[in-house]
Amino acid sequence: MNLNARLQTEQSEANKLPLVLIHGLFGSLDNLGLLARELKQDRQIIQLDVRNHGLSPRAAEMDYALMAQDVLDTLDDLNIRRFSVIGHSMGGKIAMALASQAAERVVELVVIDIAPVAYTTRHHDDIFQALQAVSAAGITVRSEAAALMRHTLPDENVIQFLLKSFHQGEWRFNLPVLLACYQQIIGWQPLPAAQQPTLFIRGSNSPYLDEKYRQTLLLQFPNARAHVVTGAGHWVHAEKPEAVLHAIQRFLSC
Question: Nearest Cα to 75, choosing from 41, 98, 43, 109?
Fold first, then answer.
């Protein structure tokens, strides 16, 4: 499956690999825009809408092998053979699947606030409830959608993030499929060890990349290093963009 993609190049150097940016659940290619604007000074940037998100095709199935193959199909169509990749949350799991699935193509990867594990806690049930309420009410105006979502979601930042994908009364993510495939999305099938240099970035207030996952992580990514951003949560790249950019740029220059 070919995905909707945005390419950005400013003064990309011939000896530097293209950099693929992959967003998380309920997101779109715009979500890593702060990183893209800075990183395009040194690299060709490819931002992607993953399947069932943004303007990419819809499909009934979602697992990490399929989503990684979508990325490879899209890059094949763009004539991009070798690349580096940055992924946040679900996008980080896609990046990790890519590192195993196409080891000869993925040179280095940055994984933002997610671990290569199957999570047992359902962190998004209140979000699904809010999104379904908006759809059931037939709301078409964003301000009315926000007002209804506030009954379920206390965090205004989360509401505004979700509303970025609300257009003319429709969600740009495939809500029924995301709900049906949620266990696959929070799940994970352990992969053979990936040898690429890998940077894991964690928000100190987030539970997703907890110290308890360290040994499992290192078994799958033995050449990993970690960077913790103090005072940030799961959306660490949005909360502390300068700290995240500095860590990424230092890693990619190695």
Answer: 98
DSSP state of 57: P
Catalytic residue list contains 89: yes
Confirm whether 167 is a catalytic residue.
Answer: no
Q: Which residues pair with 111 in a beta bridge?
A: 87, 200
Out of 56, 84, 89, 206, pick the active-site residue.
89
Distance, in Å, from the CA atom of 129 to the CA atom of 125, rounded to the nearest integer, reads 6
pTM: 0.95
Tokens matching residue 170 = 């429709």
User: What is the rounded CA–CA span in Å between residue 200 and residue 243?
Assistant: 13
For the segment 24-65, what is each residue's pLDDT rounded down to a tens digit? 999 999 999 999 999 998 899 999 999 999 999 999 999 999
The catalytic position among 23, 53, 234, 237 is 234
Helices marked H in 2-89: 33-39, 64-77
Q: Could you tell me the two tokens for 37?
A: 């604007």
- For 234, counting Cβ atoms within 10 Å of its Cβ (0-12 exposed, 13-18 middle, 19+ buried), the class is buried
